[in-house]
Design goal:
Elements: E1 6-7, E2 11-14, E3 38-44, H1 47-55, E4 62-64, E5 68-70, E6 75-76, H2 91-97, E7 101-104, E8 116-117, E9 132-134, E10 139-141, E11 149-153, E12 156-159
Parallel strand pairs: 4-7, 5-8, 7-9
Antiparallel strand pairs: 1-2, 2-3, 5-6, 9-10, 11-12
Length: 162
């Protein structure tokens, strides 16, 4: 398998997080928080080109963090009401236009509430697009159809693959 990573701010073909020896503060991911280390053949381009790649259906899979996911494959990943959020960014485009959506989240909030819900309570980023959840204690596959949920403890809800 050949994996080519793209940052929505216009970077293609980057790899592991740089060390102190090869760190460049001018090269960062779309959130600006993580520095990038470019691989041979890497390219930089403007936002219009980046979103043409995304909106053109050329992204096979996207991995995004999530605040909540629901049994119908909906995802809320951009805002908690009354908390500062700089904006949606490219999340909506990635969620709608990628061939597969992978949510990487912990299964509960800091106060122990499940993030895997029958219906999201936070504003949605996209409806019915969630493909796979990787949680600290399990992995769950979703399709674009409804998944039945089963309560397995007082703090967790998980889908069944039946």
């Amino acid at each position: 398998m050949n994996v080519i990573l793209q940052a929505e701010n216009g970077a293609l073909r980057f790899g592991e997080t740089p060390t102190k020896e090869n760190y460049n503060a001018n090269l960062a991911n779309s959130g600006g928080a993580l520095p990038l280390l470019f691989l041979p053949g890497a390219s930089l381009f403007d936002l219009q080109t980046s979103f043409a790649i995304i909106r053109g259906g050329h992204v096979d899979a996207t991995v995004l963090g999530a605040l909540e996911v629901s049994q119908d494959g909906s995802i809320a990943n951009w805002i908690i009401p009354d908390k500062f959020a700089p904006g949606m960014g490219g999340a909506m485009d990635l969620l709608v236009d990628s061939k597969r959506v992978i949510a990487a989240i912990q299964h509960t909030t800091v106060d122990g509430k499940s993030k895997l819900l029958k219906e999201c309570t936070l504003p949605l980023s996209a409806k019915g697009v969630f493909g796979f959840g990787h949680y600290r204690i399990s992995s769950i596959w979703f399709s674009r159809r409804e998944i039945p949920f089963e309560r397995i403890s007082s703090r967790c809800l998980f889908g069944r693959s039946s």
